[in-house]
Design a protein that fits this description.
The protein has 167 residues and is an all-alpha fold.
Length: 167
């Protein structure tokens, strides 16, 4: 992995962070449509930054750590902010099961090379699944509790499996 910091992948990650800040600003301004659009765009770009890093051979330890940290920030605080603003029910906090279980791995990521590999395709799929569940809940579709349960159980089992496999 290279030690460059100003790469296209890292710029995309920074844009994701900027979109998230915009989400918070518009959420506070009570402009939920714009806020949620910025959040979901920021969330969706998660798949792009890693792909760009690999495709353009821009991988770096710092880039990987920053990306994982920004992922947790956007997903975790995004869902919590939507709950606090009243746009998601409190039970939606269970959408963060994967993040809660993986928090120790994020801390250990910088301490040991065995923690640098993430959940791979499963992790990207779970992030997509979480985003779909948030959009489902915000749209008011039926069976929101089922969506939350499926995301919580699947994410919890997958994250738990990852931690056990690493220990």
């Amino acid at each position: 992995m290279q030690g460059r910091y100003l790469t296209a992948a890292n710029i995309i990650t920074a844009v994701r962070l900027g979109l998230f800040v915009g989400f918070l600003v518009y959420l506070i301004a009570q402009r939920p449509l714009i806020a949620v659009t910025l959040l979901l765009l920021s969330w969706a770009l998660d798949a792009v930054d890693g792909w760009v890093a690999r495709a353009w051979h821009e991988e770096s330890e710092i880039g990987s750590l920053v990306d994982k940290t920004i992922d947790r920030l956007i997903i975790g605080f995004g869902v919590i902010a939507l709950i606090l603003a009243g746009y998601l029910p409190p039970i939606a906090a269970f959408l963060l099961t994967k993040e809660a279980i993986l928090l120790p791995a994020l801390v250990l990521h910088s301490k040991s090379p065995i923690w640098t590999q993430g959940l791979g395709v499963f992790g990207k799929g779970m992030t997509l699944f979480q985003g779909v569940a948030v959009a489902w809940l915000l749209a008011g579709f039926p069976y929101g509790d089922v969506a939350i349960g499926l995301v919580a159980i699947t994410g919890g089992v997958g994250a738990g499996w990852y931690l056990v496999k690493k220990v």
